[in-house]
Design a protein that fits this description.
This protein is mostly helical and 346 residues long. Strands 1-2-3 form a 3-stranded antiparallel sheet, with no helix packed on it. Helix 5 (169-183) packs across helix 7 and helix 10 (254-270) packs across helix 11 (278-292). The protein has helices at residues 6-10, 106-119, 122-140, 145-161, 169-183, 190-195, 201-217, 229-236, 239-249, 254-270, 278-292, 299-306, 310-322, 324-327, 330-334; strands at 36-39, 44-47, 53-56. It has 15 helices and 3 strands. It binds zinc ion.
């Protein structure tokens, strides 16, 4: 991942810390890594190579019961420790829990229920709801797990800052996902993230600006101080990244996708379409390649899937059309995979 990680931004760096890692090796053999044998029945830690006893009274950390896969015992978990702390929730979560009690006794169950009601942290409930929503949104868009986790971390940081009071939950969640995509190097456009929610684009943009300012206060910009959405797209997404996804949305074969990528690459080399957004370059190249390989799609249809207006697609395509002799690979024509006659007319 490029740039600083989220965790580094959140916590101020401690000045100095003692190294608390304890390395135990046998003083006779001096093997690294040491060949240690834990003898639980005797409570000894023994060097496996020479037999020297390195520690007595060691703690047996194994569970004191045996579990059988088919024996669920009615959700009766004999473990006496709770889950690991979830850093995404507030509070230490190390409270005392009243257990369910012996089966058949209602007192234990009632106490357990009462305690649950009493200690349930309102803030945690809200956070958990937000995290569930983020997961749901990410899954709906098949975003990788890493984006999900980063988005949740960003949400937590933003939430702690209390600068976004009055903004809708959904817009904050969407903006967090947008930032997470950038940090994880996953190519998604602003428009695509906006389509996940019913929140207006402007609102998400506003929230995004505030999130950016929070990160800047901490001495880091999200991605090298890019301010506007247009600049942002140019930095983080390039046309080739977007292409294969758009092609599969349009039901085009991988041949068309790689053809479109080739066209975009050549166009960039020749300086055609310089200064246009990666999104419109991708759309125009797909428009061209689809016709070229005999799987034509109308500009309207491509516009629907990419969010680029069909006017923009046609204008950009005009430049590609003018340079078609330079862009189209002769091998495609010779192998009869593609034909110039299939190209959409200008
Ligand atoms: Zn030894």
């Amino acid at each position: 991942m490029a740039g600083p990680t989220v965790a580094a931004i959140a916590a101020p760096q401690p000045a100095f810390q003692k190294n608390l890692n304890v390395h135990l090796i046998c003083p006779d053999c001096r093997e690294v890594p040491p060949n240690l044998v834990e003898n639980f029945s005797e409570g000894d830690m023994v060097c496996g190579s020479c037999g020297l006893v390195l520690g007595d009274r060691i703690v047996d950390t194994r569970s004191e019961w045996r579990t059988f896969a088919n024996d669920d015992q009615g959700n009766d978990d004999p473990s006496r420790v709770g889950e690991a702390i979830n850093p995404l929730l507030s509070g230490s979560q190390l409270d005392t829990m009243i257990s369910y009690g012996a089966p058949g006794s209602s007192i234990g169950r009632d106490l357990n229920r009462t305690q649950n009601k009493a200690i349930h942290d309102k803030k945690d409930t809200a956070l958990q709801a937000a995290y569930a929503k983020i997961s749901q949104m990410c899954e709906r868009y098949s975003l990788p797990k890493m984006v999900q986790d980063v988005a949740k971390e960003i949400y937590k940081i933003v939430e702690d800052h209390r600068k976004l009071k009055g903004k809708s939950q959904e817009s904050i969640e969407a903006a967090a996902i947008f930032v997470a995509c950038r940090q994880a190097g996953v190519a998604r456009t602003f428009k695509e993230i906006c389509m996940l929610t019913s929140v207006p684009k402007k609102e998400i943009g506003r929230v995004f600006k505030i999130i950016e300012s929070i990160f800047q206060q901490n001495g880091t910009s999200i991605v090298a101080a890019v301010a506007t959405e247009k600049e942002y797209q140019a930095v983080a997404t390039n046309a080739e990244d977007l292409m294969s996804r758009f092609c599969s949305h349009l039901g085009l074969t991988s041949q068309v996708a790689s053809g479109a990528q080739h066209l975009a690459r050549r166009a960039a080399k020749e300086g055609i379409l310089a200064g246009r957004s990666p999104l419109s370059i991708a759309a125009a190249a797909i428009y061209m390649a689809a016709g070229l390989f005999g799987e034509p799609r109308s500009a309207n249809k491509i516009s629907e899937r990419t969010g680029v207006s069909d006017g923009t697609i046609k204008t950009s395509y005009k430049f590609l059309w003018d340079a078609r002799e330079k862009l189209v690979d002769l091998q495609w024509i010779e192998s009869k995979k593609a034909s110039m006659t299939g190209l959409p007319k200008v």
